[in-house]
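Revision sheet: structure tokens.
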Amino acid sequence: MKNWRSHFVFNKSERNGIFILVLIILILQAVYLFVDLSPEDELSPERQEEVARFQAMVDSIKRVAAANDTLKIYPFNPNFITDHKGYMLGLSVEEIDRLHAYRAKDQWVNSAREFQEITGVSDSLLEHLAPYFKFPVFSNTRKSTPKENDRFANLPIQDLNEATPDALMQVNGVGEVLSKRIVKYRESIGGFRDEVQLNDVYGLTPEVVQRILVSFRLLTKPEGGKQDLNNISVVALSEIPGFTYELAREVVEYREQKNGITSFEELNNIKEFPMEKLKRIQLYLTIE
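Predicted:
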């Protein structure tokens, strides 16, 4: 018993320390019980005003970003508007089709007013696009210099699918590199099926294409007709210009899921299908 009591015998310094410790514990317990340390649910008026100013600044930045997030338009020749470019410019499907039907007759658009008459675009859209139209000089005037006239006059109409690099080099703007590139591309696709495919040759400008078509026309076409999209194999489809093996496989898988494709517009349901190349693809395919 004597030894047990010795544990409760403290000197003055020890008693003071114990008292201070107990006092600190009591103060902390009182703060925990009686002081609300949770964050305020409502902001003060000053804080609310600061948040409102910050939100207004964020909204202003968003509006500026939205205003600048528009299609950047560069000068272009409206005679060569593709489906994709026409869509991005704001043309409807019908307006794009009217332009392509006009061009299919080997006719050329030579002014903004003529563009509107052919496509039927609204005045507001024409006013927006017209400043970016870039027509070849000889398309606007329908004239060439005497030297150019003599040069083109001496060139007989030749078959575009039989033209040699040397023959193509006679056209102003077609040098050795471009002439060989045209022939190489023609061979890679098995021959041109439409004169519009000249525009797919890298490096050929619309103006040079028009000069080529003065003396070279599509007099013969490759053997073999169009293939049925609902029966063509993946390998055969991948060999058609505009297709890769992966894209061909996706088309065939989609065809099998839908038990056949009824229209070319359905291809738009396939992710990342190049609808801007649809006109070219239709040169090789049909739907039966």
